[in-house]
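FAQ: What does a multi-protein file look like?

Like this. Sequence, then tokens, then the next protein.
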Amino acid sequence: MNKELLIKTFRNTLGAAVYIFLVSQLMQNGSKLFGETDTMFTPFVILLLFCLSAAIVGGLVYGQSAILFLNKKNDEGVKAAIYSTAWLGIYTVIVIIALMFAKQLGL
């Protein structure tokens, strides 16, 4: 197991998770921040944010894999993709468990 690659993928996917959290908070509190706006620009801005988020998260999660593939390090590229996907899975399970405990505690 390549410890350096494991740490890089952890760092990158943690950055993606933080970014996802921040965007979710923006969407959750959008009406508080921007008021109740329902114009023709609302769907446009949402789609722009979606595309930007896909590019940012895709780069953070699979950018390391792409760099390794381009440098002809195919085995490491595959490992980086697997590690990144596993980290995201671990984050997801942790958040689901935390939400279940929060619900049980009435938070």
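And here is the next protein:
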Amino acid sequence: MSEEHTERADSWLHNIGRHVIAALILLVCAYLLFHLLFGIVVFVATIAAVVVAIIGAIWAIRVLFH
């Protein structure tokens, strides 16, 4: 009976360990994906800001010198 109980305890610990490792891997993957997504958003926002600044400068030059 104690051997069966020990097997059950080992199996339970093994399953808990697998769940903890899976959760940690999922957290790392989520962190990396959010970091990548944030980088892409910043890149697109920077390009948009540069384009808007260039258009604004062209408009201002046309208004001032025409």
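Q: Is there any per-entry metadata?
A: Some entries carry free-text notes. For the entry above: The CA atoms of residues 3 and 9 lie 10 Å apart.
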